[in-house]
Amino acid sequence: MKKVLIITYYWPPNGGTGVQRWMHFSRYLKELGWDVTVFTPINAESAVIDTELLHLVNGIKVYPSKIWEPFDIYRKITGKKKSQRIQTGFLQENKKLFSLEKFSLWIRANVFIPDAKMLWIRPAIKEIIALQKEEQFTHMISTGPPHSTHLIAAGVKEKIKIKWLADFRDPWTNIDWFPKLPMTKKTIAKHKYLESNVLKNPDAVVAVTFDMAIEFKEIANREIQVVTNGFAFEDFKNFTSKKSNKLLVFHHGSLNADRNPVKFWKFLGEITKTNEDWKNNLEIQLVGAVDISVLQEIEKNGLLKYLQVKSFMPHSEVIEALSYATLCLLPLNNTPNAKGIMPNKLYEYLATGKPIIVIGPKDGDTAGVIMSFENCCVFDFEEDIEYLVLRECLKKGEISHDLSMFNRYNLAVEIDKLLQSL
Q1: Mind giving me the DSSP string for 370-381?
Q2: CA proximity to 295, closest of 261, 253, 318, 272
Q3: Over the chain, what is the mean pLDDT?
Q4: Which of 19, 319, 339, 356 has a C-alpha 20 to 30 A away from that of 75?
C-alpha cells in the first residue's frame, strides 16, 4: 500500500498561506489512493487561527507532536502580548529596537539554526522512527519553511529506508528577510551548508517557482521539479461577482515594508484629485498584517479616508470579499529574489477572473504567468503607474481563464506521479 508521512509545521486550525498547500494536497493524495498521515506540532506558533479549515481535513490522520519554541521568552523581553504573533517578514516594523530586543534577535539569528523550530528536530526524529515501526511508511514529504522540517526528514532518512520528497514553498538563504537577521559569517556558512545538504540528499526536490528551481539546481547540481501553488476548485466553483458602486482595490495577506507599493499609492493619490469617479468611489481594503511604512505612505498620499484594514479574515470570507473587488492588488517583495516570487494569492486572484495589478519585475515568474491575461497588468517597482494601461485592464472586466494547470487537484496529481516514480 502507498503510505506517506507529511511533515509540516503549518496545519489547521492554523491559518494563513503556509497551511493551504499541504492541507489541500494531503486530502487530494488520499483521494488518489494514498494512506496519508500528517506529522505536525500540536502547539505551533501561528500568525493566524482559522478554525473553519478543520472540516477540510476531516479523515486525514494526524500525529500531534509537542514543540517548544522561544517566543514566550522573546515576548517577556520585548513586552509583547501572547496574542501578538511573531512574523519574521516584519523584522523592520520597529527600527528603533531596545538593546534587549537587539540581543534577543541576535540570539534568534545565531543560536536557533535554521530557525526557531530547531528544538523540535531531535524529538521529532525519534517520534517518527517509533511511528514507522507501526505504520511502515513508504514515502515521506517535508515541506518548509520552517526548514527544520527538512532536517527532521534528513535525520529520519539516515536511520530508516524510506523515499523522501523535500518541498520548498520559499527559498532558504535567498529569502527576502534573510539579510535582515544579524548573522555572523559562521552562521551564514552553516545555513548554506545545511541548505546544500537538504537539496542534495532527498530522492526528489520540489520548488514552487521556476526561478527558485534554477537557484536550487545551481546549489545542488541536480534536477529540481516545479509544482506551483494554486487554488482549490471547490473554493471558486460557485464564485460570482457582486455588484458594487465602489472602485474597490483589494489586497489579502501581509504587507511588509518590502511589499509597500509606493508608486501605486502615489498614483491613487493623484487620480483621486483629478478624477471624480475615483475620488467619490475609491475604497482600499487590506486584509492581513500591514507594516507602519505602508500606512504612512497611504496617509502621505491623502488616502486614509478610503482605507479599511482588517487584520484577519477566515479564508471563506476572503473569497467572499474578493467577489466585490474591482482590482486585485499584488505587490511583490522589492528584494533581490523578486523574480522568483509567485505568491499564493496570485492563483486565487486569477480564479476570480478579476483585473489584477502586479507591482514587480516584468521578467519575473509572476509576470510570466499573468502577461497572457488581458485584464492583468504589470508595473516595475520604480515605474510610474500609467492610467491608460490600468484603465484598459479595468475595462476588460472579469474574464474566465483556463487555469487547469493551477487547480490544486491537478497539482496533487503531479505530486502523486512524482512520488510513484521514486
Answers
A1: HTTSTTEEEE-T
A2: 261
A3: 91
A4: 19
**Residues 171-215 pLDDT 10s:** 999 998 898 899 999 999 999 999 999 999 999 999 999 999 999
96-to-100, 101, 370 alpha-carbon distances in Å: 12, 10, 39
Query: Which superfamily, per CATH, for 3-68+113-230+408-421?
Result: Glycogen Phosphorylase B; (3.40.50.2000)
- Among 352, 353, 322, smallest CA distance to 249 is for 322
Cα–Cα distance, 193 to 113 (Å, whole number): 11
Euclidean distance between CA atoms 319 and 258, whole angstroms: 25
Measured distance CA(7)–CA(26) in Å, rounded: 11
Q: Looking up cell 479599511, which residue turns up?
A: 308
**Prediction pTM value:** 0.90
Q: How many angstroms separate the CA atoms of 55 and 112, rounded? A: 34
**Percentage of the chain exceeding pLDDT 90:** 79
Q: Does domain 233-402 have CATH number 3.30.390.30?
A: no
Q: Is 258 in contact with 240 (CB distance < 8 Å)?
A: no
